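Appendix C: a fully annotated inverse folding record. The material below is reproduced so that readers can follow the format used throughout the book. The structure is listed first as tokens, followed by the designed sequence.
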């Protein structure tokens, strides 16, 4: 399941403050289905935090907050991409993220609604006082670098509606304003109204998928754009969500797009510095090719969504079907990552899925939008 976690607006909150005295050592990142994971220490406990610059502030899962004895001091109404939600917010709390210390309020909300496996969303407020050197291709980062590396290209960033980070992009040659959102696992979201105005929907294969934010799970439309460019760097065959919700700007750039770059985030200076190798520029975007979304229930995978015109639909899958084996291997012996990996294999790969009833269905992966 594609996951998206946004917090775009709340109340006026205090800024974070990064500690300047830490050694310039950097830290490792992890890449999971949830996003880019940064190490976090809060109240002496080691947590997993997703770097989500689409969120205005850091959000701690309610269950984790209860375990740590952290309580909100006042209520807060937030705006997610698909609607509004109610939460609470704390007074400023000291928290270590990667190689720096921060002091800021934390929003307390349930992250389960979005299917999130991490403990914390790390919002863009941490970037107001600390630059971030983010080497996403090599899974390294540091808050201790004072300037970008030589050879990086500057891209202008402005503060948009509700504090979103906004930059200029080209979508199939057409200029557009884009908000940056490393918490989105869709490479690119495009406003349906803007796409229609610019004739970007004619003659394209369309399908559906599901995604989530703090308001729950939602069905979305998907297609593929021929090319998109940021900082003069061109990417081709870009999977894109056609958003019928009210985006703040025409485009939303997600993690699969942003992680192609080595980047230096200087938000106070109004610059995102980027560089990319030809390998990262030319690599195809990973995409789901089965059309099946499911959730794990002990030793089976329960199908919760079947994309129209997908291989899953053509193989007669329907919601509620239970998958017990993948290519003969019991689901019980597979990790969560292994139950998902096969769906992203190359087109024309054939997969044998055995249902709990014993019925076997063969499915051939392909691009269906």
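Designed amino acids, in order:
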């Amino acid at each position: 399941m594609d996951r998206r976690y946004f917090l775009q607006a709340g109340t006026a909150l205090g800024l974070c403050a990064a500690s300047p005295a830490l050694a310039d050592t950097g830290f490792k990142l992890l890449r999971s289905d949830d996003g880019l994971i940064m190490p976090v220490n809060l109240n002496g406990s080691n947590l997993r935090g997703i770097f989500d610059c689409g969120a205005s502030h850091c959000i701690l899962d309610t269950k984790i907050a209860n375990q740590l004895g952290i309580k909100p001091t006042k209520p807060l109404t937030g705006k997610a991409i698909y609607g509004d939600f109610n939460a609470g917010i704390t007074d400023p709390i000291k928290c270590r993220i990667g190689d720096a210390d921060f002091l800021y309020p934390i929003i307390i909300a349930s992250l389960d609604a979005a299917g999130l496996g991490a403990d914390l969303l790390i919002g863009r407020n941490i970037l107001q006082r600390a630059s971030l050197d983010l080497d996403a291709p090599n899974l390294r980062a540091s808050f201790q670098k004072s300037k970008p590396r030589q050879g990086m290209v500057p891209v202008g960033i402005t503060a948009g509606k509700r504090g979103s980070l906004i930059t200029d992009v080209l979508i199939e040659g057409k200029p557009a304003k884009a908000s940056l959102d490393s918490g989105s696992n869709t490479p690119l979201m495009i406003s349906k109204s803007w796409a229609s105005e610019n004739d970007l929907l004619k003659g394209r294969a369309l399908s559906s998928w599901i995604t989530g934010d703090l308001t729950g799970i939602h069905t979305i439309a998907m297609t593929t754009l021929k090319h998109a460019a940021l900082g003069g760097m061109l990417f081709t065959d870009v999977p894109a969500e056609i958003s019928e919700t009210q985006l703040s700007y025409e485009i939303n750039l997600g993690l699969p797009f942003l992680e192609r770059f080595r980047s230096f985030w200087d938000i106070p200076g109004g610059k995102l510095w980027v560089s990319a190798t030809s390998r990262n520029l030319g690599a195809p975007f990973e995409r789901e090719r089965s059309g099946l979304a499911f959730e794990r229930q002990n030793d089976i995978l329960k199908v919760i969504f079947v994309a129209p015109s997908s291989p899953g639909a053509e193989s007669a899958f329907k919601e509620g079907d239970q998958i017990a084996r993948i290519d003969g291997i019991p689901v019980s012996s597979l990790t969560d990552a292994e139950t998902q990996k096969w769906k992203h294999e190359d087109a024309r790969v054939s997969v044998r899925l055995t249902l709990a009833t014993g019925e076997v269905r063969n499915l051939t992966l392909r691009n269906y939008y």
